[in-house]
Amino acid sequence: MSIITRIKSAIGLEARSTIGVNGWPVPISASAVTPATAQGVSAVYACVQAIAETTASLPLILFKRNGDDRERASDHPLYRVLHDQANPEQTALEAREYMQACVLLRGNAFARIVRGWDGQVRELWPLNPDNVQVQRTASGLVYDYTKDGVLTRLLAHEVLHLRHRLGDDGVMGVSPITAARGVVELAQAENEHGRNTFTNGAKLLGVLKFPGRLKPEQRQAIATSWASQHAGGGNAGRTAILEEGVDFQALSMTLEDAEWIAARQFSVEEVARLFRVPPTVIGDLRNGNYSNSVEMARQFVTQTLRRHLVAWEQGIAAKCLTDAGRRMYFAEHQVEGLLRGDSANRAAFYSSGISDGWMLKSEARKLENLPAIEGLDDKETSAPDVPKGATSNATPAPLPYPSKQQEAAA
């Protein structure tokens, strides 16, 4: 620290650094943007939840390679940790949802790996990123975790570390709200403006004009009286009574004149762009219809979720499996789980796979958690009548529901 810097610090004129984590510029007021305050913006919370809960709810399966084929490694200890129970206190969904939210809000997520006597992963314990310090040593990365005043040093192979995007230091990830604090700050300012406006009864700001000069105690008494009678939502619409030549002159614009609502809507688009989430996914349906909503849902999987899913799969391979284990086992999300609530698309998906020959009927029943039927794949299905000019391998149209058949017959 130079002498000039020390003198400025002594008299309270020190200059705050405008360079934040990994070289990203930080405005002077950016200290107000934290993971907790950022979630106060509904668009931020919706984006984080859309990605975190979808990622966590997708089945994460540990597979075993069997030549060119693969099968579920349900007898492997890691299978249960990823699919069912991460640790004795948290389910797999709860642990993965928390860690994915940490990746989005803080840029990093950590989980302590607990291994059994055979070296296999038995538990994953998510760690609060605010309590983890990562240091680079001659032997590799070490993770210092502090809880209740107790410091625990963990080695690199003992921690599952997920990053949003690698920063310039090559160790820590950079979260969206760190890279673009101004977007969240603007949304927070608009929230605060609207809250204060409606707290004060959505009244116009203005000036009370008095014909004479007031004493300080008179100004204070009048301000207190005016606020008690006309501020707040409960006083909205009341008529002001002015005495002795007092005049009220409005100064500010209405919310409509300031286009506050339009600015709020634009902030939703800005935040959605920040997290790469289609606006329709977080409930912004102003420009949404059935056609583009379906396409945006597909983009949500391919362009938004894919990066996070791959990060999980590669992180598990790097930290939860040995070199020999990686040659035999691998973890993979089953994205088909997103079709679970759409019976029509799911039926068309299975029908197309069976008719085109890349899926067996028994495999479709297994994906639907239905009991196996002996010899189901050996049975030949009679081909439906093919209309003139149509191809024989076309996907048959779905049959109507029984209730609709009854209505047609009636």
Describe this structure in words.
By secondary structure, the protein is α+β, with helices and mostly antiparallel strands. The protein has three domains: 18-202 and 254-340, no CATH class; 206-232 and 240-251; 344-373 and 395-410, no CATH class. It is built from 14 helices and 13 strands. It has helices at residues 3-10, 35-38, 42-57, 77-83, 92-106, 176-179, 181-199, 216-230, 260-275, 290-319, 323-328, 343-356, 361-367, 402-409, and strands at residues 60-66, 69-72, 85-87, 90-91, 108-115, 121-127, 132-137, 140-147, 150-155, 159-163, 206-209, 247-250, 329-333. A three-stranded antiparallel sheet has the order 2-1-13. A three-stranded antiparallel sheet has the order 6-5-10. A three-stranded antiparallel sheet has the order 7-8-9, with no helix packed on it. α3 packs parallel to α9 (260-275). The longest helix is centred in the C-terminal third of the chain and has 30 residues, at 290-319. The chain is flat, with a radius of gyration of 30 Å.
Low-confidence regions: 10-19, 21-31
**Order of strands across the widest beta sheet?**
2-1-13
Distance between the termini: 90 Å
| Average residue-wise pLDDT | 77
Shape: flat
Count of individual helical segments: 14
The string of secondary-structure elements, in order, is HHHEEHEEHEEEEEEHHEHEHHHEHHH
Secondary-structure-based class equals: alpha+beta
Can you summarize the main beta sheet? 3 strands, antiparallel
- In percent, how helical is the residue content? 40-55%
Q: What's the structural domain tally?
A: 3
Strand residue percentage: 15-25%
Number of strands: 13
Question: Taking Cα atoms only, what radius of gyration do you get, to the nearest Å?
Answer: 30 Å
